[in-house]
Each structure stands twice: as structure tokens, then as C-alpha cells.
Backbone:
């Protein structure tokens, strides 16, 4: 588990480097998805990046055998989680990838603050859910 | 053409990284945030490994380059303000992240598994993004 976490993280870091090197853009998935769906004419490569994001797991499954993650969330978690993740990432200009990986690597104070903020509210949320559910 | 092929390959690398590291599994995300319970450290290792690759590039290589290989110019976020919008947005994002154990990258990569909950999450996420667009923009507020 430690080795696969580190290897996966290296791939994510390398992909973030490549997107800046080739396209000149921050690998912030929330804004790339937003652009691919709502503003495609501005950055047409965004859609091919999103397609690649889906192909990656299929490639891993082809090489490594299928091992689908387990999704046993309640539907209220799916709906509320999605709504807040979408709203918050748009309002806060980024998510785990844009702020958490690229922003911190760029030395952006904004991203460090954002990352600490969503980690703290995430911890509090999981703590409260553990108490109530 | 190359700008699309490299974007496709880069997306695939990112998606593969998310799966290999277990970040597409909501239990690993919620386990990381569950510091008072059965803590799972994966996410911290993934982030540190990703930053270990990206940070040297952003800090020492990027400043020496004049333009990207296939794009017109490097585009970094212009804003440096730590304002209410950033704090509120990140705080709300974290609540949704904790509630579901999902964020945009793993949710998109999760399409590969044709899991109904992933499509439900993505639909709700896009609605959430559009709702945020309805808020007055910081410049219009003045």
C-alpha cells in the first residue's frame, strides 16, 4: 500500500509537470472539467485531457486486472457531496489537485491556505458523521 | 494535433496515478480524514510524492522556460488574494469531500467503472459549479 501510494503520487506529479510543460496550464481537475463542459471553445484540449483521465484507469485495469473501487456510499452522501464539491471548488478556484498539488508546488500562499482549510473542514465533517451516523 | 495527444496522454497518466494510489476509493479519502478513528495515511503519501515531482519543476525549471511546448503561453492563476471567497469555497469543498470521499479527479476517473454513484456525484458536482457561477463575481461586488 505504501509503495502503490507513492508510485501513484509520482504519476500524478509527473502529469502535473507535463500539463504545464506542454499546454502551459495548471493541472487543476475542477477547472479543467468546468472548461471541458462549459467553456470548451476556449481550451479545446481540456476535453481530451478529461477523456485521458477516464482511459488511465482502464489502462491500469488492462495491465493489472480489474480492481474497481468500492462505492457503498448512501445516496444523500453522493448528492450532497457532489453539490458541495462542485460549489466549493468553483468558489474557491480549485480542488485537491489544483491547490493541493500544483499550488503548493508553485509556492502559492493561497493554495496552502485553501488546502489546510479543506483538510480541516473535511476532518471535522468525517468526525461529525462518525458521531451521528 | 500534438497538443491534443499530449493532453490525452497526460490525462491518462493522471488517471492511472489516481487509481494506482487508491485515491479513487472513497474509503481511502474518508479514512485519511478520520484522524480520530482508523486513520489511513495513503493520501498524505500520494500528495507528498506528487509534490516531490512537481515542486522542483515549478520552482527551478519553469522559470527558465519561455513558453510551453504546444501552447501559446504559461498561464498561472493571477489572484494572490486570500479572501473570503477562497476560504469559504475551500471550507465548503472540504465538507463535500468529507461527506462523499470524492473530489473532481477521482470522480472523473471513476467513470471508467460505470458506477451509478459516480454519475450521480458528477451530475451534482456540475450543478454545484453552476450554482457558484450565479454568485456575484468579486469584481461586480466592488
Residues:
Amino acid at each position: 500500500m505504501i509503495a502503490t501510494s507513492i508510485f501513484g503520487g509520482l504519476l500524478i506529479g509527473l502529469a502535473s509537470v507535463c500539463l504545464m510543460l506542454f499546454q502551459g496550464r495548471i493541472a487543476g481537475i475542477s477547472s479543467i472539467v468546468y472548461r471541458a463542459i462549459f467553456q470548451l471553445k476556449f481550451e479545446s484540449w481540456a476535453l481530451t485531457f478529461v477523456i485521458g483521465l477516464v482511459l488511465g484507469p482502464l489502462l491500469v485495469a488492462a495491465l493489472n486486472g480489474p480492481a474497481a473501487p468500492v462505492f457503498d456510499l448512501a445516496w444523500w452522501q453522493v448528492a450532497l457531496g457532489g453539490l458541495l464539491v462542485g460549489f466549493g471548488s468553483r468558489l474557491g478556484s480549485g480542488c485537491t489537485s489544483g491547490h493541493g498539488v500544483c499550488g503548493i508546488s508553485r509556492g502559492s500562499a493561497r493554495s496552502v491556505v485553501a488546502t489546510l482549510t479543506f483538510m480541516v473542514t473535511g476532518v471535522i465533517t468525517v468526525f461529525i458523521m462518525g458521531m451521528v451516523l | 494535433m500534438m497538443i491534443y495527444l499530449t493532453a490525452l496522454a497526460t490525462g491518462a497518466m493522471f488517471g492511472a496515478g489516481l487509481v494506482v494510489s487508491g485515491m479513487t476509493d472513497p474509503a481511502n479519502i474518508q479514512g485519511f480524514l478520520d484522524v480520530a478513528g482508523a486513520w489511513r495515511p495513503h493520501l498524505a503519501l500520494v500528495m507528498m510524492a506528487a509534490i516531490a515531482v512537481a515542486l522542483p519543476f515549478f520552482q527551478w525549471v519553469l522559470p527558465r522556460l519561455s513558453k510551453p511546448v504546444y501552447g501559446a503561453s504559461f498561464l498561472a492563476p493571477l489572484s494572490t488574494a486570500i479572501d473570503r471567497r477562497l476560504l469559504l469555497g475551500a471550507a465548503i469543498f472540504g465538507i463535500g469531500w468529507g461527506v462523499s470521499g470524492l473530489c473532481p479527479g477521482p470522480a472523473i476517473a471513476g467513470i471508467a467503472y460505470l458506477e451509478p454513484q459516480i454519475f450521480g456525484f458528477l451530475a451534482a458536482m456540475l450543478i454545484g459549479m453552476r450554482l457558484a457561477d450565479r454568485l456575484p463575481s468579486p469584481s461586480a461586488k466592488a
